[in-house]
């Protein structure tokens, strides 16, 4: 069974992840023999099959209007937005973003290749995250007496966010596809790192003080990756 092997200096044991396309990724401590990793993966065969079947069912149930590389609709639950995507001729001189009544419209060129559409959509997602989440982060920081240096938004493949030692916050634009509660938890998680730069008991106590049901939101975050539209995860 094929898999991608990644060694991590802080890994203490073998970990197996099934990607949304069914590919296997193994994270291993340094020095672990390939034969040991092979045995580990073979021992997870039943679990791998179960997860792949579940992911296949989820993919088949997804709405094609939101899932492809040229979506017709974009849903952002974290901020309660629904965007219709309209593909038109490049010479049409209209605003790229507009609101008609209660509907939000995002206009993209009709004849652009899929790669260009994906790039534009991913850039738009990062801008939208900054517009909607930056004020939220500032509000939470002020409410709990925290101060950060800079705030950036990226389309990261494996992390919801990070906090550097000099107080810079980086957040994943994919947070817009979470529920508002799960998104708020991630914002709080990274802000608390300004006070506690590790995951010590003091860190988790502070998180629980601000977000008592954070464990529930952590469980949700584990499933969001598999529901992301294809244009978000395309490279």
Secondary structure blueprint with pairings:
Blueprint: E1 4-7, E2 15-18, E3 24-28, H1 34-43, H2 45-61, H3 64-67, E4 73-76, E5 81-88, E6 97-100, E7 103-109, H4 114-143, E8 151-154, E9 161-163, E10 169-172, H5 180-192, H6 201-210, H7 214-224, H8 230-233
Parallel strand pairs: 1-3, 5-7, 8-10
Antiparallel strand pairs: 2-3, 4-5, 6-7, 9-10
Could you please describe the fold and organization of this structure?
This protein is an alpha/beta fold and 235 residues long. It is 42% helix and 20% strand. The protein has helices spanning 34-43, 45-61, 64-67, 114-143, 180-192, 201-210, 214-224, 230-233, and strands at residues 4-7, 15-18, 24-28, 73-76, 81-88, 97-100, 103-109, 151-154, 161-163, 169-172. The strands form 3 sheets. Strands 4-5-7-6 form a 4-stranded mixed beta sheet, with no helix packed on it. Strand 6 and strand 7 form a beta hairpin. Helix 4 packs across helix 5 (180-192) and helix 5 packs across helix 6 (201-210). The longest helix has 30 residues, at 114-143. The protein is globular and about 55 Å long. The model has no long low-confidence stretch (mean pLDDT 89).
């Amino acid at each position: 069974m094929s898999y991608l092997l990644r060694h991590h200096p802080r890994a203490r044991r073998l970990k197996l992840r099934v990607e949304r396309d069914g590919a296997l990724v193994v994270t291993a401590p340094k020095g672990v023999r390939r034969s040991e990793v092979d045995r580990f993966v073979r021992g997870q065969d039943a679990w791998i099959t179960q997860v792949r079947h579940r992911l296949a069912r989820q993919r088949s149930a997804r709405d094609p209007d939101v899932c492809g590389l040229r979506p017709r609709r974009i849903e952002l639950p974290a901020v309660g937005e629904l965007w219709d995507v309209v593909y038109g001729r490049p010479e049409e001189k209209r605003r790229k973003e507009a609101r008609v009544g209660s509907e939000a419209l995002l206009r993209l060129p009709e004849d652009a290749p899929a790669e260009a559409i994906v790039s534009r959509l991913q850039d738009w997602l990062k801008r939208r995250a900054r517009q909607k989440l930056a004020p939220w982060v500032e509000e939470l920081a002020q409410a709990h007496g925290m101060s950060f240096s800079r705030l950036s938004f990226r389309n990261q493949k494996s992390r919801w966010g990070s906090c550097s030692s000099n107080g810079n916050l980086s957040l994943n634009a994919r947070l817009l596809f979470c529920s508002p509660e799960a998104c708020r938890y991630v914002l709080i998680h990274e802000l608390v790192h300004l006070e506690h730069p590790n995951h010590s008991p003091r860190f988790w106590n502070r998180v629980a003080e601000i977000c008592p049901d954070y464990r529930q939101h952590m469980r949700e975050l584990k499933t969001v990756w598999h529901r992301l539209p294809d244009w978000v995860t395309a490279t």
